Each structure stands twice: as structure tokens, then as C-alpha cells.
């Protein structure tokens, strides 16, 4: 395959997200300007100007009308996808690290970092249908987690919120009451910071990537560990193929150590693992910095990766990929 | 893309009367005479046929059939109605700044990137099983036969699981590596043998032979201003008086075969060469005065 290289960002990539139809790709980077691309040919459609800090994550509503972004400028912003217009800005006391729309797009979960003397929080915001009714009030605030929360996502039917972060523990919270329901096992779970979390298509299971050089597959309801994928590098990004039994891991050496070693030693590849057999299927090279973001197209035919090098690489799989037998 | 152009000339020439006097009008008139352009397909196989008619320089009517294989990604992708609508959205934000900037941002990699498999499909190179006996296999697995070809570690991991495999030199696809230890180029059944240059072949004493060769080159003497009749044997006879000579060579023109007037002599011992130079430089040989010197080292 010949990847499409998109050099729209001047700083390292932080997050990639496809919309539900898989025709748009949203990219976030540390350069303050989230960007949207056409996912088939990599044409830049537009940028969302207004943030004043690194943008950590984004999410797009099911109808691809609205985008929510979380940034280090201590805001989360709502945008109109088609025009790049800023609709609303939620202000926080600390950088917003993770955002996600709930099913129905009436709620959004936002996490804030531990910053100055603020503790990290998970906050649920109502998203008004009419933007004039939008308020900044939080429907729920969850505190009590030590260490930064890197990802917070909704569980099935919006009943739970799953968080993962620096303390290497995955927690499931009740999204109504904010009660802690489950906690991942310390022994079998990750040993270092969890950097990424990605749900399967039906949300029945999810995969987490960690700096302990492994990725783990968990059951969403029971939080039981199903599979472990061991690799030789810290994992910064993970995703699950929506159509095949494939998990992709991306990562590499810490950015501050990169220049000290051979490029190949950095292991800046996107590694594909068989979801069930936990065996490595193959690797896709190309980035010359660690991979910070990975996303499968919802049609399963392409995936994109974003690296510390500022490039987004969009890969359309060869037919060979679809016929791999393990 | 495969384009096949078939031309079929139609014999009938146009009479002058059919052509209008004015050039511009004649072009227009001729175009009107032609049958319209027909486009067929693309069919299921992606073949598109275009049939066109035109006049060549001599005024002959030519039928041009162009068959094109189209392979478009968009044709396969199922786009939802809203996605099609999003296609027509106007660019916004920084993307507005003209299409030129946008096209520079997005480019297709010139490099073909493959999904690199940790091992070739259907091939288990890391398991040198000689028998089908599972017990035997188990013993070889646990024994020191498990040697990593990348880092050379014994009994720790297979080559495919080597933590240093990314650092090893790249191999293009599955390569049949000849086992150098026992001299057999490739195990039976693998078919293709990798080419081994003669000096790398098993049995050539690389250290000794190449050293010897270099030393001999150092003792090479160039003889200029030889007469055309001087043969290699004459040269040998002349120089062998000073000591053992292991090569005498006269440069010859490749086409005519006649001497080009210079030659080389290699002595076994450097001292002999020195003596030969001091004696024969300026020596009259066959009406000519020889010029003898150490030959320049080849780069």
C-alpha cells in the first residue's frame, strides 16, 4: 500500500478520530488547531481555529454535525463540523484531557488533569440540542482518582463511564450517581500509565495500551481481562478493527530519548496483532517518531496513524491484508 | 492503466468538393461529417471503451478505439447520502487559503509500505524440524538448536521473536540463506540458490589468496616504449634474468591484436624488480630505448 501523508500539523499529533460514516478524519495535535480531512484521499477540508493550547482529544457526534475538543488551554469546545465555527466553550480549572459524546449526543464526558492544586476530575456535561440553551454546568463530577486520567469513555447504554490513566487502573463508574462500580485487578492489570483506550464496534470489549509495553483486552461489563498483547515498546495508541479480528498498537520510545538511538530501534511501527490468538500479524513502518494516535476507519479498509513527527499517515489496506490466515 | 489504441482506416478519400474553401469552415464541416463519440462501460471488470472518429493529416477518416481499465477506489466505497453531501462542503479555516497549499499538505507516499509479516506466510523457517516425531521436536526446541540468527543468542528465543530483530539488516522478503557452516549452499528442496561470488565461495582461502595477489601487484613493473614485435615471451626472457617473474604481459590492441607498446612484468621479489629497473631503464632493445618504472597502483 502507498500511504497518504498529511502534513497539516506543525507539532506532534495527539489524537485521531473518524466520524461514523468513515468519510471524515479528525486530527488533533499540539499545535492548537484540530483539522478535518477527507478520509479517502486525504484532502484537507478545514481547520478549527480558537484553541490556545495543545489539543488532546476530540469526538464527533453521530450525525457528524458537531465536534467536541479538549485542550490544554483549560477548555473544551464545541464546533460546527461543516464550517469550523466555534459554538460553545466549556471552561475548566485544568487542561481537558479526554472528551467523548455519549450515545445520543446529549451528554459528553470530559476529564480534567491534576493541575496546580486541582485534583483530576471526570465531568459529565449536558449538550443542548439548541446551542443557545447550552450551559457550562456539569451534570456529574467524579473525583477520587489519583494521577492523570488519560481516557474516559462511555459504557454500554450510557450507564457507566470507564476511566483509565496514570495510576494504571481501569475503573468503571456509574454515570448517574458517580459511584465506583469496578476496578481492574492490580496483579493482572497494567503496571504503568495507561495511555489509550479504544472500544470495539459493539462496545462489548475494549483495549487499553500502556507504557508497560503491553496492550490488554477487557470485557466492558465485568472488567475481566481477556487478552494481553505483549510488545517491545511503550504503547501510546491502540485501536480495534471493526471488521477483522485485529488489534493495532502504536508507540515507540519516549520522544525525549528518540534522537539517541537508531531510528529502527525506536520501533515506530504500527503493529498488528491477532485479537484472539494474541500473535503478531505484522507491522507497518513509516513514522520517524513515536506513534501517538491510531484509528481504524469504520469500514475496516483503512487506518490512519499520527506520530510525534507531525505527520498523519493514511493507509488503505492491500487486498493481502484481508486474506491473512493465522 | 492499459490503453489499447486500434486505428482503422477507412479507404474513401474526401473529394475536394466536399471540403469547403475556407479552412476554419472545413474543419467544422468535417467534424460534422464524423459519427459521434461513443463511450461504453465501464463494465464489471472496470473496462471502459471509447470509440472516436477523426481525420488524420491526410484527410483519412480514422476510427480510434480506446480501451481503458479503470480502477477507482471510490467505485468500491459505499458512501452514505450524508457523506456524499459532505463531499461538496466548502473548505473552511486554514484550508480556504487556496487549493495549492492544500495539495502540498497531502501527498501520496512514493514508497511502497508493506504490512511486514514477522515471518513469511506458510513457512516456518525458525523450526528446523528434521523428523515428525513430536518428542524429537520437543528436544530440539529445548536444546541449544534454538539459535537466534539475529543476535546469536542460544536457547533463548527464535529468530522471529528476537527483541533486536528490527536492528538487523533488512532482508527483502523470504531469502533462502545458504548455511555457510557446512558448505552446502542451500538445503535440498528450497530450490533457488543465492549467488555467491567466487572469492566468497567455500574452499577459497580468502585471507591467503588475496594477500598474495596484493603483494604481487605491488611488485609490478611497467615497461614503456616496447617495439611492436616484442612478445610476452621476449619480455619474460629479458626480465627473468633478474629473478623469478610470475607474470609478463604485453598490452595489445583489442581489434588489431598488435602491441600497444607497453607491458607489465611482475616479480616475486621486490629487490629483483628494483635491480631490473636500474639496469633496463634506458636500455636499448630492438631499436628503441626502454622506459622501465614501477607501475602505479590501481585505485
Automatic annotation (TrEMBL), chain A:
<dbReference type="GO" id="GO:0016282">
    <property type="term" value="C:eukaryotic 43S preinitiation complex"/>
</dbReference>
<dbReference type="GO" id="GO:0002183">
    <property type="term" value="P:cytoplasmic translational initiation"/>
</dbReference>
<feature type="repeat" description="WD">
    <location>
        <begin position="142"/>
        <end position="183"/>
    </location>
</feature>
<feature type="repeat" description="WD">
    <location>
        <begin position="6"/>
        <end position="47"/>
    </location>
</feature>
<dbReference type="InterPro" id="IPR036322">
    <property type="entry name" value="WD40_repeat_dom_sf"/>
</dbReference>
<dbReference type="InterPro" id="IPR015943">
    <property type="entry name" value="WD40/YVTN_repeat-like_dom_sf"/>
</dbReference>
<keyword id="KW-0853">WD repeat</keyword>
<protein>
    <recommendedName>
        <fullName>Eukaryotic translation initiation factor 3 subunit I</fullName>
    </recommendedName>
</protein>
<dbReference type="InterPro" id="IPR020472">
    <property type="entry name" value="WD40_PAC1"/>
</dbReference>
<dbReference type="GO" id="GO:0033290">
    <property type="term" value="C:eukaryotic 48S preinitiation complex"/>
</dbReference>
<comment type="similarity">
    <text>Belongs to the WD repeat STRAP family.</text>
</comment>
<keyword id="KW-0648">Protein biosynthesis</keyword>
<dbReference type="GO" id="GO:0001732">
    <property type="term" value="P:formation of cytoplasmic translation initiation complex"/>
</dbReference>
<keyword id="KW-0677">Repeat</keyword>
<dbReference type="GO" id="GO:0003723">
    <property type="term" value="F:RNA binding"/>
</dbReference>
<keyword id="KW-0963">Cytoplasm</keyword>
<dbReference type="InterPro" id="IPR027525">
    <property type="entry name" value="eIF3i"/>
</dbReference>
<feature type="repeat" description="WD">
    <location>
        <begin position="284"/>
        <end position="314"/>
    </location>
</feature>
<comment type="function">
    <text>Component of the eukaryotic translation initiation factor 3 (eIF-3) complex, which is involved in protein synthesis of a specialized repertoire of mRNAs and, together with other initiation factors, stimulates binding of mRNA and methionyl-tRNAi to the 40S ribosome. The eIF-3 complex specifically targets and initiates translation of a subset of mRNAs involved in cell proliferation.</text>
</comment>
<dbReference type="InterPro" id="IPR019775">
    <property type="entry name" value="WD40_repeat_CS"/>
</dbReference>
<dbReference type="GO" id="GO:0003743">
    <property type="term" value="F:translation initiation factor activity"/>
</dbReference>
<feature type="repeat" description="WD">
    <location>
        <begin position="48"/>
        <end position="89"/>
    </location>
</feature>
Automatic annotation (TrEMBL), chain B:
<feature type="region of interest" description="Disordered">
    <location>
        <begin position="117"/>
        <end position="136"/>
    </location>
</feature>
<keyword id="KW-0694">RNA-binding</keyword>
<dbReference type="Pfam" id="PF12353">
    <property type="entry name" value="eIF3g"/>
</dbReference>
<dbReference type="InterPro" id="IPR034240">
    <property type="entry name" value="eIF3G_RRM"/>
</dbReference>
<dbReference type="GO" id="GO:0001732">
    <property type="term" value="P:formation of cytoplasmic translation initiation complex"/>
</dbReference>
<comment type="similarity">
    <text>Belongs to the eIF-3 subunit G family.</text>
</comment>
<dbReference type="InterPro" id="IPR000504">
    <property type="entry name" value="RRM_dom"/>
</dbReference>
<comment type="function">
    <text>RNA-binding component of the eukaryotic translation initiation factor 3 (eIF-3) complex, which is involved in protein synthesis of a specialized repertoire of mRNAs and, together with other initiation factors, stimulates binding of mRNA and methionyl-tRNAi to the 40S ribosome. The eIF-3 complex specifically targets and initiates translation of a subset of mRNAs involved in cell proliferation. This subunit can bind 18S rRNA.</text>
</comment>
<feature type="region of interest" description="Disordered">
    <location>
        <begin position="189"/>
        <end position="211"/>
    </location>
</feature>
<keyword id="KW-0396">Initiation factor</keyword>
<dbReference type="GO" id="GO:0033290">
    <property type="term" value="C:eukaryotic 48S preinitiation complex"/>
</dbReference>
<protein>
    <recommendedName>
        <fullName>Eukaryotic translation initiation factor 3 subunit G</fullName>
    </recommendedName>
</protein>
<dbReference type="InterPro" id="IPR012677">
    <property type="entry name" value="Nucleotide-bd_a/b_plait_sf"/>
</dbReference>
<dbReference type="GO" id="GO:0003743">
    <property type="term" value="F:translation initiation factor activity"/>
</dbReference>
<dbReference type="InterPro" id="IPR017334">
    <property type="entry name" value="eIF3_g"/>
</dbReference>
<dbReference type="Pfam" id="PF00076">
    <property type="entry name" value="RRM_1"/>
</dbReference>
<feature type="domain" description="RRM">
    <location>
        <begin position="219"/>
        <end position="297"/>
    </location>
</feature>
<keyword id="KW-0648">Protein biosynthesis</keyword>
<comment type="subunit">
    <text>Component of the eukaryotic translation initiation factor 3 (eIF-3) complex.</text>
</comment>
<feature type="compositionally biased region" description="Basic and acidic residues">
    <location>
        <begin position="117"/>
        <end position="127"/>
    </location>
</feature>
<dbReference type="InterPro" id="IPR024675">
    <property type="entry name" value="eIF3g_N"/>
</dbReference>
<keyword id="KW-0963">Cytoplasm</keyword>
Amino acid at each position: 500500500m502507498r500511504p497518504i501523508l498529511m502534513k497539516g500539523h506543525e507539532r506532534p499529533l495527539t489524537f485521531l478520530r473518524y466520524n461514523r460514516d468513515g468519510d471524515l478524519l479528525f486530527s488533533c495535535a499540539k499545535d492548537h488547531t484540530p483539522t478535518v480531512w477527507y478520509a479517502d484521499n486525504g484532502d484537507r477540508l478545514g481547520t478549527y481555529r480558537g484553541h490556545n493550547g495543545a489539543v488532546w482529544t476530540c469526538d464527533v457526534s453521530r450525525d457528524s454535525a458537531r465536534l467536541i475538543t479538549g485542550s490544554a488551554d483549560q477548555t473544551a469546545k464545541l464546533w460546527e463540523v461543516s464550517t469550523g465555527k466555534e459554538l460553545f466553550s466549556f471552561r475548566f480549572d485544568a487542561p481537558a484531557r479526554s472528551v467523548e459524546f455519549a450515545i445520543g449526543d446529549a451528554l459528553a464526558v470530559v476529564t480534567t488533569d491534576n493541575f496546580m492544586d486541582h485534583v483530576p476530575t471526570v465531568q459529565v456535561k449536558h449538550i443542548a440540542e439548541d446551542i443557545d440553551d447550552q450551559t457550562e454546568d456539569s451534570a456529574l463530577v467524579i473525583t477520587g482518582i489519583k494521577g492523570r486520567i488519560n481516557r474516559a469513555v462511555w459504557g454500554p447504554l450510557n450507564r457507566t463511564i470507564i476511566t483509565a490513566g496514570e495510576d494504571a487502573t481501569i475503573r468503571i463508574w456509574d454515570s448517574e450517581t458517580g459511584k465506583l462500580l469496578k476496578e481492574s485487578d492490580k496483579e493482572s492489570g497494567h503496571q504503568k500509565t495507561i495511555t489509550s483506550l479504544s472500544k470495539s464496534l459493539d462496545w462489548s470489549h475494549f483495549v487499553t495500551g500502556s507504557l508497560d509495553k503491553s496492550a490488554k483486552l477487557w470485557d466492558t461489563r465485568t472488567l475481566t481481562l481477556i487478552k494481553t498483547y505483549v510488545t517491545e515498546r511503550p504503547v501510546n495508541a491502540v485501536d480495534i478493527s471493526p471488521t477483522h479480528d485485529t488489534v493495532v498498537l502504536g508507540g515507540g520510545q519516549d520522544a525525549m530519548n528518540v534522537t539517541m538511538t537508531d531510528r529502527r530501534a525506536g520501533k515506530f511501527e504500527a503493529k498488528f496483532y491477532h485479537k484472539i490468538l494474541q500473535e503478531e500479524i505484522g507491522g507497518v513502518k513509516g513514522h520517524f517518531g513515536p506513534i501517538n494516535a491510531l484509528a481504524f476507519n469504520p469500514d475496516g479498509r483503512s487506518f490512519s496513524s499520527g506520530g510525534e513527527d507531525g505527520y498523519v499517515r493514511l493507509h488503505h489496506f492491500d487486498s493481502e491484508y484481508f486474506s491473512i490466515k493465522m | 492503466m492499459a490503453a489499447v489504441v486500434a486505428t482503422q482506416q477507412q479507404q474513401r478519400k474526401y473529394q475536394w468538393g466536399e471540403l469547403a474553401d475556407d479552412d476554419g469552415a472545413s474543419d467544422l464541416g468535417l467534424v460534422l461529417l464524423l459519427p459521434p463519440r461513443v463511450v461504453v462501460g465501464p463494465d464489471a471488470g472496470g473496462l471502459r471503451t471509447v470509440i472516436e472518429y477523426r481525420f488524420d493529416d491526410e484527410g483519412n477518416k480514422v476510427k480510434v478505439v480506446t480501451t481503458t481499465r479503470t480502477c477507482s477506489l471510490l467505485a468500491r466505497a459505499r458512501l452514505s447520502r450524508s457523506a456524499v453531501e459532505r463531499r461538496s462542503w466548502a473548505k473552511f479555516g486554514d484550508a480556504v487559503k487556496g487549493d495549492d497549499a492544500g495539495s502540498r499538505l497531502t501527498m501520496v507516499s512514493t514508497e511502497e509500505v508493506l504490512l511486514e509479516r514477522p515471518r513469511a506466510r506458510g513457512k516456518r523457517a525458525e523450526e528446523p524440524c528434521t523428523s515428525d516425531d513430536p518428542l524429537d521436536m520437543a528436544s530440539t526446541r529445548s536444546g541449544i538448536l534454538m539459535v537466534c540468527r539475529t543476535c546469536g543468542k542460544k536457547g533463548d528465543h527464535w529468530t522471529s521473536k528476537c527483541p533486536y530483530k528490527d536492528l538487523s539488516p533488512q532482508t527483502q522478503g523470504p531469502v533462502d540463506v545458504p548455511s555457510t557452516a557446512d558448505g552446502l549452499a542451500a538445503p535440498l528442496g528450497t530450490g533457488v540458490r543465492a549467488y555467491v561470488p567466487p572469492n566468497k565461495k567455500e574452499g577459497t582461502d580468502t585471507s591467503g589468496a588475496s594477500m598474495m595477489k596484493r603483494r604481487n601487484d605491488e611488485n609490478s613493473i611497467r615497461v614503456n616504449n616496447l617495439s611492436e614485435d616484442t612478445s610476452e615471451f621476449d619480455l619474460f626472457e629479458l626480465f627473468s634474468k633478474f629473478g623469478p617473474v610470475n607474470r609478463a604481459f604485453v598490452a595489445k590492441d583489442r581489434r588489431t591484436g598488435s602491441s600497444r607498446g607497453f607491458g607489465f612484468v611482475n616479480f616475486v621479489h621486490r629487490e629483483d624488480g628494483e635491480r631490473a629497473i636500474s639496469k633496463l631503464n634506458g636500455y636499448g632493445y630492438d631499436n628503441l630505448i626502454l622506459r622501465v618504472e614501477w607501475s602505479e597502483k590501481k585505485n
